[in-house]
Amino acid sequence: MGVLVAQLSGVGVFVVVTLALGVLLRKRPQQELAERLSRVSHLAFWLGLTAPWALGFLFPGIAALDRVSGLGPLPLALWVRVVVGGPLLVVGVAFMQASMSGLGRKGRGAAAFKLTSNVVATGVYGLVRNPMALGYYAACLGGAVLAGSTWMLLYTALGVIPAHVFNLVSFEELELSLRYGEPYQAYRATTPFLIPQLRRRPSTTE
């Protein structure tokens, strides 16, 4: 039960932190403040969403979480879980890896640890503005389906993903606009938010 509480509390705390950061940045729309608050947001993501999600797999285990929540396992055959969850997990991890590679090579940064110094608009970032988030969502959903956990699937789909999308919309896009200015505005105008486009319009940002 403690893990369930930690997971739900983590989502709630993350949303509250996102609200607070957004309000503060709108009151003081400054580049330096945006950089500092971006690091706070990343820390809140790791502590509020990622760590509790991983904890659910490690302790007390998927079967125990479903049993404690009273939901029971996913009513899906093993082959269905593999066919659905496997590709989601693989594609999600691939998107995250490609995103981290792009941030390092083009943005001279690293996800959650070192802020990029310029807008990255090539590779997977040319398909969608938030490929790291998209990959994270797919990997979490895929892991939950593969494990056959009803609780983890619902927690991911109804808690983790909406909370993180809220962060992207209400805080991250604002802080990126303040840090990068016009290059990010041009990139934002030509690149989808979360659903990739197959054909990308030309962009002047790199």
Range of strand content: under 5%
Biggest sheet character: none
Number of domains: 1
CATH architecture: Up-down Bundle
Q: What string gives the helices and strands in order?
A: HHHHHHH
Q: What is the share of helical residues? A: over 70%
Compute the separation of the termini in Å.
47 Å
Question: Count of helical segments?
Answer: 7
**What structural class do helix, strand and pairing data support?**
mainly alpha
| CATH class category name | Mainly Alpha
Radius of gyration: 18 Å
Q: Which segments are poorly predicted (pLDDT under 50) over 5 or more consecutive residues?
A: none
If you consult CATH, what is the topology?
Four Helix Bundle (Hemerythrin (Met), subunit A)
Number of strands: 0
Average per-residue pLDDT, rounded, comes to: 90
Shape: globular
Structural topology:
Layout: H1 2-27, H2 31-58, H3 62-69, H4 78-105, H5 131-147, H6 150-180, H7 182-190
Helix pairs in contact: 1-2, 1-6, 2-6, 4-5, 5-6
